[in-house]
Every structure is written in C-alpha cells, then in structure tokens.
Design a protein that fits this description.
With about 130 residues, this protein is mostly helical. The chain has one domain. It is built from 5 helices and no strands.
C-alpha cells in the first residue's frame, strides 16, 4: 500500500501542478476546460476566482508531494488529503446533481480524488504507527 500511496500522490502532484498553473497563469484556459461560455469568460470576478483557485490547487500539490516523498513522516497529511478528497467529491457531486456541470467536465478529478481517498484511508493507520516508532 505504501507504493500505491507514493505513486498516486506523486501523479497527483504532477496533475495539480499543471492544473494549478493553468488556473493561476491562464484563467481563460481554465474556464474553457470547465465549459465556460464566452460571456462567462468576460466576467472579471470569474477570472480572479480562477487565479485564486490556482493558489489552492498548488498548495494541494505541495502537500501531495510531501506525502509522495515519505508517506510515513507526517500521517496528518494523509488525513488532511482524505478530508480534501471527500470535500472535493461532495462539491463535484453537488454540481452534477444540480446540473451545473457534466461528468465529462469533472470526471477525471472525481477519479483522482477517489484514488487519493483510497490511498489516504488505506495507509493512514500504518503511517501513524511508523511515525510513532522512535
């Protein structure tokens, strides 16, 4: 399970760096990825929100990288990532239920979050024991 966590969190780091940089540096592109209309792309608040979103995604990439490097070092990061994965899954599920987006727009992220959740929950107790050893 340790290798699973390292691989999934390592791939997630790359995914989040790419998506975070797009959101931060190219908010119009990010809005396009999520299906924004031309009118939506003219809303300054949405552009600013995408840039802010990019900072949060990049923060998640840093946490994910720390887990990938050594899942045993800080078990609390696994718990944090599990919490973020659950919140993200709930958020995307709500957008799907209310018809605000389609599965094609958020499906990849839903799969990524599910893989992270499996790794974080599956390895947390083992990481906690490893961190407690002197």
């Amino acid at each position: 399970m340790r290798w699973y966590v390292r691989i999934v969190f390592g791939l997630n780091t790359v995914y989040q760096v790419v998506i975070g940089l797009i959101a931060l540096l190219a908010p119009l592109t990010m809005l396009g990825l999520y299906g924004a209309t031309d009118a939506d792309k003219q809303v300054v608040l949405l552009l600013a929100a995408m840039r802010g979103f990019g900072f949060y995604i990049l923060f998640g990439a840093v946490v994910s990288a720390l887990v990938a490097l050594d899942p045993d070092r800080h078990p609390v990061l696994l718990a944090l990532m599990a919490t973020l994965a659950v919140l993200t899954i709930v958020g995307w599920t709500l957008t799907l239920v209310f018809g605000e987006m389609k599965v094609a727009q958020v499906g990849i992220d839903l799969v990524v979050q599910a893989l992270l959740l499996v790794g974080a929950l599956g390895y947390y107790s083992q990481a906690k024991r490893a961190a407690a050893k002197p």
